[in-house]
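Each lists chain and fold; for instance:
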Amino acid sequence: MDPIRQAQQHLDQAKEQLRQSVRQARYEGRTWVDIGRALGMSRQAAFKRFGEVTDPVDSRKITGVPMSLTEIRTRTEQVFDLISTADYDALEQMLHPDVGPDLTASTISQVWTSVLTEFGAKESFDDTHVVLPAGDRIEEDDQIMGTVVGVTTLNCEAGERMGRVAFDDRRRIVGLLILPPDYSPLPF
């Protein structure tokens, strides 16, 4: 067990060294484009993972809420399970209060009815993962600021649909899409 503990310790140290290196690069005037390029990600992905923002009202540091990718993947599938079983009361509890009149139980029901008539009932999920709104896939848990999107393939009786759920930093639904798997461009 010691090699496992040591490997975990080395991983934690490497993550901290990376965070410190990014802070140093920002202090030296490097842009998020430079940092993202060095990390093989977009500038938005680099900022959302490592950025620091100060609240102009009280000068407090605004940090991301630690994200559990497992939790976001689970919640994404839960959303589509609730839709497919018409449990709109439970779904409404997950909605952000400001999503507006476009994301109502009636609207969701109408969209799901069209999925049912074209592709049949949902049978399973495939490749459920988490991305940033810009599309960059998030591969590991970290502190992420702002919105993330859970993405899954909805395997139905006669075809597939892509399901996308945008969650705010309190894990409330702020957007919901059911689209063809190759749909582009994506609004989030």
User: Anything to note?
Assistant: The first helix runs from residue 2 to 27.
